[in-house]
Design goal:
Layout: H1 2-5, E1 8-13, E2 16-22, H2 24-33, E3 40-41, H3 45-51, H4 61-77, H5 83-101, H6 111-127, H7 136-152, H8 155-162, H9 172-197, H10 206-216, H11 227-258, H12 260-273, H13 289-302, E4 311-312, E5 317-319, E6 322-324, E7 329-333, H14 335-338, H15 381-398, E8 399-403, E9 416-417, E10 421-422, E11 428-432
Parallel strand pairs: 2-7
Antiparallel strand pairs: 1-2, 3-4, 4-7, 5-6, 8-11, 9-10
Binding site for heme: 378
Organism: Jaculus jaculus (Lesser Egyptian jerboa)
Membrane topology: Peripheral membrane protein
């Protein structure tokens, strides 16, 4: 459609018009240069019941700005971007390595184990707690999150987004609501524990910081720091901080099995820079341009969130000669940037060379925006970069990935491509190096 109508055009889903923004220059002008006008979050029908207008994903205006600023402050206080959180990730990745060793090189589906690291890292931020991989609560949270990702990315839910009345019918969306309700119960239990042990002078995690803020603003009837807002925000942070990262890692391993020559080259770099007797750290990234390029190329190629949850214009906007009224729903095509042919030659090919210059050094690209850009970009982007680099590097330091089929026969086509781009299920063998 963009080839025919240009980088700004309207499509109708049912009777609802959406303005689509396509291409790097268009997204930059809208989300950065006119970021305030395009900063409001739209609705996504199946999530309305769970999120309403609370949390960090679907809130708008003053509530959203306060929540985002508060969360970033807590992340800084807890050491995100510093050695504190890096050590936590390294410890969790080592637990993953031990769990993978127990598979004894037998075929296994890595879906659950790969989700344990980002899940426990987020639990550290939220609850100052980690779960053993055998814990039933952890298993439920991961499995229900995976199920909900499949549901919201399915064709049925895309149809329900166009015609919300369909949500009254039986369907997978009922399972989504049940999973959300159970997740809320678990989170509420942790909040109650925090309320009983709260130390005003020594907050340990996000929930403590939020509860203290609630107490301080107890007499402010207009305060945004309420229990409902806390629960929804925790749900948002958990979902955003676990599912996209675990999906990216899972998809990444599939691609590395498909292209074993890339895995071999990564392991050569690991042997040269790190060796086999110490754990990788973030300081290694600057000396590992090929590994850095692979991590970026995985995110670019899989395009895990092709179209983020819609935006809504906050006021009447004049944009590229068009008048866009206040309240217009906006669809942002991240795919159009991540697969731009001018920036990434052969964009449909998995090629780490997209992020390497002629001398083999890492090449940054303004077109790399899997976390979106501007005011609504992902607040956990820095944390996600740390996790993906450390997880993938450590796995390849300790294991060779052995597929169940000839690499040429491995299908890397996503099985769902709605809100998330999800890889097909697969098994592999983690062969100790």
């Amino acid at each position: 459609l963009a080839k025919e109508y240009g980088p700004v055009f309207t499509v109708y889903f049912g009777m609802r018009p959406y303005v689509v923004l396509h291409g790097y220059n268009t997204l930059k002008e809208a989300l950065i240069d006119q970021g305030e006008e395009f900063s409001e979050r739209g609705r996504f029908s199946i999530m309305d019941e769970a999120a309403s207008e609370f949390g960090i994903v679907f809130s708008n205006g003053h509530r959203w700005r306060q929540t985002r600023s508060f969360f970033l402050m807590v992340l800084r206080n807890m050491g995100v971007g510093k050695k504190t959180i890096e050590n936590q990730i390294e410890e969790e990745v080592w637990c993953l390595v031990e769990a993978l060793k127990k598979t004894n090189g037998s075929p296994c589906d890595p879906t659950f184990l790969l989700a344990c690291v980002p899940c426990n890292v987020i639990f550290f931020v939220l609850f100052q707690k980690r779960f053993d991989y055998s814990d039933k609560k952890l298993q439920f949270l991961i499995n229900s999150s995976h199920e909900n990702s499949r549901i919201v990315s399915s064709s049925w839910i895309q149809l329900c987004s166009i015609f919300p009345a369909l949500l009254c019918l039986p369907g997978s969306h009922k399972n989504y609501s049940e999973n959300i309700a159970e997740q809320k119960k678990l989170i509420m239990d942790h909040i109650k524990e925090h309320q009983e042990s709260l130390d005003f002078k020594n907050p340990k995690d996000f929930i403590d910081y939020f509860l203290i803020k609630m107490k301080k603003e107890n007499d402010n009837k207009k305060s945004e720091f309420t229990m409902e807002h806390l629960i929804t925000t925790v749900m948002d942070i958990f979902a955003a901080g676990t599912e996209t990262i675990s999906t990216t890692i899972r998809y990444g391993l599939l691609l590395l099995m498909k292209y074993p020559e890339i895995s071999a080259k990564i392991q050569e770099e690991i042997d040269h820079v790190i060796g086999r007797h110490r754990s990788p750290c973030m300081q290694d990234r600057s000396r590992m341009p090929y590994m850095d390029a692979v991590v970026h190329e995985i995110q670019r190629y899989i395009d895990v969130v092709p179209f983020p949850i819609p935006r809504v214009t906050t006021q009447d906007v004049q944009f590229r000669g068009w008048h866009i009224p206040k309240g217009t729903k906006i669809l942002i095509s991240l795919t159009s940037v991540l697969h731009d042919k001018k920036e990434f030659p052969n964009p449909d090919k998995f090629d780490p060379g997209h992020f390497l210059d002629d001398t083999g050094n890492f090449r940054k690209s303004d077109y790399f925006m899997p976390f979106s850009v501007g005011k609504r970009s992902c607040v956990g982007e820095g944390l996600a970069h740390m996790e993906m680099f450390l997880i993938l590097t450590t796995i390849l330091q300790h294991f060779t990935l052995k597929p169940q089929f000839d690499p040429k026969d491995i299908d890397i086509t996503p099985v769902e491509n709605g809100l998330l781009s999800l890889p097909p299920s697969y098994e592999l063998c983690f062969i100790p190096v």
